[in-house]
Design a protein that fits this description.
By secondary structure, the chain is of the alpha+beta class. About 60% of the residues lie in helices and about 10% in strands.
Amino acid sequence: MFSDLSVISYGASAIVFAVLSTLVATRYLRRELDRALFLAAFVTTLWASALVSQSLWGEPGFFIRYLLELLRDTAWLLLLFALLRDSFRQAKFTGQLRKTLGVATTVLIVTLLSLGTLEFAFDADLVNGKTKLIGQLALSLLGLSLIEQVWRNSPTLGRSSVKYLCIGTGTIFAYDFIMYADALLFGQIADSFWDARGFINAALVPLFAVNIINSRKQPVDFQLSRAAVFHAGAFILGGGYLFLLAMGGYYVRSLGGEWGDALQVLFVTVALAFLVTLLMSRRIRARIMVFISQNFFDYKYDYREEWLRMTQELANLSNEPPLPERTIRILADLVESNAGAIWIKSDQNDYELKSSVNIATPKHTAIDGDSELVRLFQSKEWIIDLAEYRANPLTYDLIELPEPITNTPDAWLVVPLFLGSELYGIAMIGRPYAKVVLNWENFDLIKVVARQTCNLLAQADAQNRLSRAMQFEAVSKASAFMVHDLKTLIAQLSLLVKNAPKHRNNPAFIDDMISTTDHAVRKMSNLVDHVRKPTTPNDEHRSKVDLTGVVRTLSEESSRRLPVPQLLGDPPSILVCAEHEQLKNVLGHLIRNAQDATPPDGEITLNLKKAKGSAVLFVQDTGTGMTDEFIKTKLFKPFESTKGLTGMGIGAYQAREYLRELGGNIDVTSEPGVGSCFSIRIPIASLSNEKPSTPDATPKLGAHKLHKAAN
């Protein structure tokens, strides 16, 4: 008798479910979920035992077996409803939907049980076998839809606690659906499906056992969203559609004669293509979402979902698609539309069209900043429904709408974009896919989202303005540096012109004039090249420079002014890696600044030392000195000068930046009324094959000799 595979299959199922029900009953009956699992396991044990008994002894009869089949499905459905009980209690699983699911389940089960009972009582065939199969398919689809809702709407913790339970229950209902669909298609239940069914159920018991052990201390909390209802409904409708498709394909093949197989393939292919078209249709989805919101929920929107979606869209820092276009799409999606346009306030106080999506705008798109629409928005933060406006303009104070809006086909809503209390922009939304009935909830959400997106638009605009200002500032700084260098050249050439009438016949003066002019020409050429081809700091134009020689030269050239700088001692030759002329200009500027700050009877000393791989030049004076506050906040700040209109305020800043490029720096100590000391540190050049650069033909600056000749 044990050669019958069904006996072994359902016997194994009865044994393992009996063990599971015993385990749950003796240890884990603290929660309703545990009690529901016990009921499902116990009823499944009775169901499997009845099938084994029927195979062995021919009892019980069909009615008892059918009744147990229905009770088994009912028990597993109750288990799924137990998972949703917390949502019922917290009113998240709202009234109409809760009632619909409960009524549908109750009506289906009661109907099937009643029909079976009446057939048994009166020994009459009220419904045929196919109708019973359809009832079993409906129960399976209902179970699968509930599992989909549970899984989709459970939080992370909830998913971990019900994962195995959903997999096990889903497998039971999915297997039954496939088996009964096959039976409906071919007129009988296949032996292969029936014999394997017991083994399939038995194999799922470890999932239930692991779930109940792992989750007995974990809370279960679920929230059913509009998206869940939409997907569950789509799942049920899709299952029903596929079921009808299977039936239609069967009858087409049966009635098609010789062309039956080909007609069946044609029918199935066209039907599947039609189903895919429906599923991908945005218009159909929009109509379904509107229907769900109107009939099953107290609120139209899932605010958490809307807020997360808006945040995700606005968090995209790229410019693809541009921010104005994303703003239009965000606002349009709130009312199931995909078209619109946006105007932003310009510097002339008009509103310029920034972007439009899926809508044709007229040729002239600017909105006057003094128009009646703008004045209305500035006084009232209203959203204008153009259909309502056309039907009754009195609702909106008989205002005259701008032509860019009235001449735009399919325009629907006009939304003000406020930045604080200022009207920053105007958005227009095109007609939706489906008819949407607007109420206070729509308008409030649109206003909130409009303000949030407006803040980001204003921030992006401010960022663009700041970027342009920084570019202009960079150009201004470059110009200031050029003017600073040109001032030195102008001073040299002015001195030549001043002394030319007196010394035009002096050969030494002519030689100095030629050398000075040549130096000025090369200096201006370098400035022009730098403007044409600005380069980042690098070592291409650097070579080894004798710092001691540069300091001696600067000391001699600066002796034409009082006080005369004094170079202390006889420092040895020190090589540094730098550009000769640039280094000379930087150090010369610092020495001239010391002379400017020191009275003629004061002292300026230059002291050159070596210290830990660096050369240090001390420029010390007995001048007016500086406060610590001035040194910290203004000395090295561009365009800050103590020389009034005669100074550019960039010499010290330029000197420090160049020395930092070389790897050095400037340190300053000073005391008002006592003097200042600038410590210039420059790394000593490392040994290499490079040769020290020789000073060019630049005079020592020629101006010294001219000063002597003038006297």
